[in-house]
Design goal:
The chain is built from 7 helices and no strands. The longest helix has 21 residues, at 128-148. It has helices at residues 14-28, 37-52, 56-73, 78-90, 94-107, 112-124, 128-148. By secondary structure, the chain is mostly helical. The protein folds into 2 domains: 13-74; 77-150, Tetratricopeptide repeat domain (Serine Threonine Protein Phosphatase 5, Tetratricopeptide repeat, Alpha Horseshoe).
């Protein structure tokens, strides 16, 4: 089945674009039934909105709640694990952040930003060798991406 892509007349927020992409990917892969997508889309949009809000520190609690709700239903959702880990890291919860970022790295090993945040978590935890390894992985993935870009 060929799907026609219609570009919006004006730019759409990143969260909305992300949710649209995830909805398409999850339903076409059969990982999520179409009737469950609204819940996942709403939770991710709310979490990203909370993180982007001007009162970031006050809204991080909202983001954490939304991301945990997503992970309760989809523990293998790498993007939610990444966002949760990044948020926890910003709150000086490096051990919990590392747990989620390690899971995200297992689920999406080619995502450079996950490895960068994991390197930061290891650095905060006083694990310099692991931090260097993750930073090297991050740099390799960025170089690979640059090589593919014309």
């Amino acid at each position: 089945m060929v799907r026609k892509v219609v570009l919006p007349a004006r730019p759409i927020p990143l969260a909305a674009a992300f949710c649209g992409f995830m909805a398409f990917a999850l339903t076409t892969s059969g990982q999520v039934a179409p009737d469950r997508l609204a819940d996942l889309e709403g939770a991710i949009t709310a979490a990203e909105g909370a993180l982007r809000d001007g009162d970031l520190l006050g809204r991080q609690d909202d983001a954490l709640i939304e991301l945990q709700a997503v992970l309760n239903s989809r523990p293998e959702f790498a993007d939610a694990r990444y966002l949760l880990g990044k948020t926890l890291l910003s709150r000086d919860a490096a051990e919990a952040a590392a747990t989620h970022l390690e899971a995200a790295a297992r689920l999406a090993p080619d995502e450079a930003n996950i490895h960068y945040q994991l390197a930061r978590a290891y650095e905060q935890l006083g694990r310099p060798e692991l931090a260097r390894q993750e930073l090297a992985t991050y740099q390799q993935l960025k170089e690979k991406r640059r090589a593919k870009t014309p």
